[in-house]
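Hey, can you fold this?
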Amino acid sequence: MSTNQPGVQARLAPNARPELILDIERVLDLAARQTIRAEFRFDPGAPLVVSVELLIEGGPRVLWRIGRDLLQQGLYSVSGLGDVKMWPAHSEDRATAWLQLASRDMAALFELPVSPLEEWLEYTYELVPAGREIAEIDWEAATADLLQGP
């Protein structure tokens, strides 16, 4: 996994959890955008989701957990329902995708570069292939935890 684009860093954390750091743009209106640092993290022990932490300069850190398959599909077609949606942008000069995050009070639209995210996601699928995400779950232990309750 290699990146040599400005605003893009990819690295393996010491505990073998791949991380991708991207500068993405929040669309504020037709003419205004805000650059935001987004840190994507993948834990092979919880392979169904990707944690995305948005670091807003002078503001709070915001953490979203997004389905890995939703991100992958959103690079090529409309993906997601409700709070998280992603779809490819149609731009002549560069490949980007739109990511919309919504909560009860507000929604935010972000534009992400496709190439580094696509490469990083491919690497996560090398670590845990599609269809193998729940193969390692100890169903007896998981069921016992559910039956014990809070």
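Oh, and this one too while you're at it.
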Amino acid sequence: MKTFLLILISVVFTLGFISNKLLNDKIQKVLTQFNISEDFAKRQILSNIAGPSYYIPNVRILKNLALGERAELVKTIGMGIKEYVSSEEFIKNYNQYREDRKPGLPEEPKYSEQLKKEHKESLTKSISEMEKQMTTLPADQKAMFQDVIGQLKQQLKDVDDPNNPMFSSDMDTYIKQGYDIQIETYKTQMTEWEKAYPLNNPKPMIKSWINEFLEKSKDIDFNAQLKNEKGKQIFVNSAYERKDNQWKLYFRAGKEPVEAARIFSQQWLKEL
């Protein structure tokens, strides 16, 4: 699960709409600054929440924003996201996303009688085609074809052999057992799918997204010291340097926007 904060910040640059209302001047200005289209914005919100992922276009411009401005934008866009994810448009897109992830029902297996029939048809066709082809071959090549045809004809006889294990009742039992296992797996997957993606209700997905952010952002040491090493800024504390990119991005975002995102997300979580 990727970052809630970063998605909130990135949506500042991707959210060109809030339901059917006009863009407010602040968001319009940022959208223009970051050259983000409204269509891209609509696609990005669901993919960010569901991915889970995040995307910050033109990150160099983001770095030039003042921390106070970032925090305020986090709050503003947080409200915009809350409104949009309850809209008919978002629910429709969510339901399609849900349907795309629905487990597929296992295909009915073929049992011995059907397998035998198909195998006999295949062998018969191959024999017929080779016999026709053989009539056009030079005499010195016909012997080889005749051997192959003879082997195919023997295989055709063996299909009807009652002792052939490939087409026995035991084989049908194994096929049925394998299919039963697939059906049980499918039922489990369907239960998990219905729980993770209830119809018309993206709340479980949103809750998971928020909870991951709260967990990842709870122990950021914003007073951590950095040092320059070979032209790169690294943490003096080696334990911090081993932290994942998500933790480091929270650190770089700064305490003010991270705390604003945490307060907002905690309140939102209570409402879900």
